[in-house]
Amino acid sequence: MTTISDVARLAEVSVATVSRYLNESGYVGAKSRQSIETAIKELNYVPSEVARSLSTKQSDIIGLIIPDIKNPFFPELARAVEDTAFEYGYTVILCNSDENPTKEKHYLQKLTKKYVAGIILTTILEQESHWKDVKLPIVALDRPIDSDVPTVTTNNQKGAKLATDFLIACGATNLLCISGPEAFVSSQSRVEGFQTASRKKNITTHIIESAYDFDIAEKIIYDYLKNNPSVDGIFACSDASAIGALKAAHRLGIRVPEDMQIVGFDGIQVGNVVTPSLTTVAQNIYQLGQTAAKLLIKQIEGQKLTNESICIDPELIIRETTRKERFE
Amino acid sequence: MTTISDVARLAEVSVATVSRYLNESGYVGAKSRQSIETAIKELNYVPSEVARSLSTKQSDIIGLIIPDIKNPFFPELARAVEDTAFEYGYTVILCNSDENPTKEKHYLQKLTKKYVAGIILTTILEQESHWKDVKLPIVALDRPIDSDVPTVTTNNQKGAKLATDFLIACGATNLLCISGPEAFVSSQSRVEGFQTASRKKNITTHIIESAYDFDIAEKIIYDYLKNNPSVDGIFACSDASAIGALKAAHRLGIRVPEDMQIVGFDGIQVGNVVTPSLTTVAQNIYQLGQTAAKLLIKQIEGQKLTNESICIDPELIIRETTRKERFE
DNA sequence: CAACATTGTGGAACCGGTTACATAGAGGTT
DNA sequence: AACCTCTATGTAACCGGTTCCACAATGTTG
Q1: Domain range enclosing B234
Q2: A15, A90, A145, A265: least surrounded by Cβ within 10 Å?
Q3: Which residues of B are less than 8 Å from A64 in CB distance?
Q4: CA B50, C1' C22: Å apart?
Q5: Can you tell me the distance from the alpha carbon of B51 to that of B57, in angstroms, rounded to the nearest whole number?
Q6: pTM of the model
Q7: Are A101 and B38 in contact (CB under 8 A)?
Q8: What is the CA radius of gyration of chain A?
Q9: Where is the HTH lacI-type domain (chains A, B) (predicted)?
């Protein structure tokens, strides 16, 4: 591998001049520029990121910490982050935290050691104090960490309201809400949205909790529906639970959407492939990731973005688990 | 951030001794060891990966290049690689190539500049010569690059044979094979497996090609089945096409598995969630990723693994798109 | 024309580690 | 006592960049 001094030697200038040329900092005369350019081409020179990082204490690496890339929500998010990073010349390190604080802390330390430029963090859990000590640029995704950390979220409450209003408009009167684990703030907001939308009307509501997991949700919902056959509308706080509900209904001989309607939340691809395909409140996942990445890069490149938080509206996608004819 | 010389100063030894202590290289006396340990604790010292990389020209970063993390096959693979890397103290940079040689080349250069320790490469396309110049440890996943590059693949031919034999055993006699794009070697092997399995018996076969994409496959298969209603068994070279087939059949009023049976290939999670759930040849995706990562790390840590290639057997998962009663 | 600003360049310290080499004391051998 | 081998440690060069500072040449201004 050729180094900057090889280039300097061949171009008959000093390394300082070459460095200035490379970074477009300071003056470089026309003939120096010329000879440097030819030297670089001739030697096929590529500057070492590592050496530069050591000097500048900065790299072009972004750390992305998510719970689990296998969770169908995250691949698209990761892709959005990576695309945006790529566009701006950054590179992404992928970390799966499993929502485990120890692992999270470990990654944090590793990333720090590598002088990463910044971190995008998707922790759904409660605020972990160790994030407050980090002096790196951070953007929180999906869940706020701290009031002065820029955050990108979906408007969960609004989305839930959208879903619930729609269920009711489609004639459902006996609503079941499948919440996520209590620790997830996003799930709480969705439940709140559900409650505000269903409270005013003359509607019966129930709320049960389930992990965001197909199989677990299926079991819980199966048991519930068995004992409560009057439910005619389900709002699930995740598409995973919604699909669980679908399977549970199938096993119980409940026809969807004729006997019971279902609306999910998330907008993951699977929802479109299931039969009947899932009506859902789709988060704009790609935009979520893109926005977070852009926000982070802005911060990295010097702008202080204290307090800048962005809330992205989700969108109701009407498919086959709800009825076409609207009442009201 | 504290440095090694801070530690050396506080411990009243030289940086060389501290470095020796950290790397367990060379001799360190008992009292030096003691004072270094306390100094490190007191200062909360964490060595800089970057500085070390500059010296050693090695990092603990592994580059993972895949076509697209959004493709449902890759999240689990990426997770396996990351898990294994984590276990051995490595870190993963995620690169989406979109099967685009230019992007691939770009990433290759970027990764080289960062002194990554090695690269795991999943390119389904034809051999790209630029990989031959790379002097980094490489492992090819899913597709061989070169005879002397260690490679991890699924036994595609065997899997296809498994699927086809099973379809025939379940009574299908008029088989349609949905191949992948011609450029994918893995798809070719699957078609070959299909052909060897179906040739000997008294069976009619057809082969059509489709991208590995739900919607595209659905359209192509819909058109085909419309004109060829006698097909009673489909072997799809990917679960994506299999699901497309399922939807096409649904739209045409063909009952699955009563009128027509379907077997997919890949074993992605969606297959289990679709109705009826998909009988498929499951690749052991996690093991694929894990094996590749381990192979790479072995190489990184000094072992020359020329010619070491591993072929992992897939497994037939019988679900609901095939009939229970076996003929024969 | 003197004083000063602007442009162009190189020397050398520095980033935070690793490592070759020199050195020195302790213990063992003959 | 002379010599050798370990063990233990420090000095300093090096990895490949960035950047401060000094300095020179040239242009500009009053």
Answers
A1: 156-283
A2: A15
A3: 94
A4: 29
A5: 10
A6: 0.90
A7: no
A8: 26
A9: 2-56
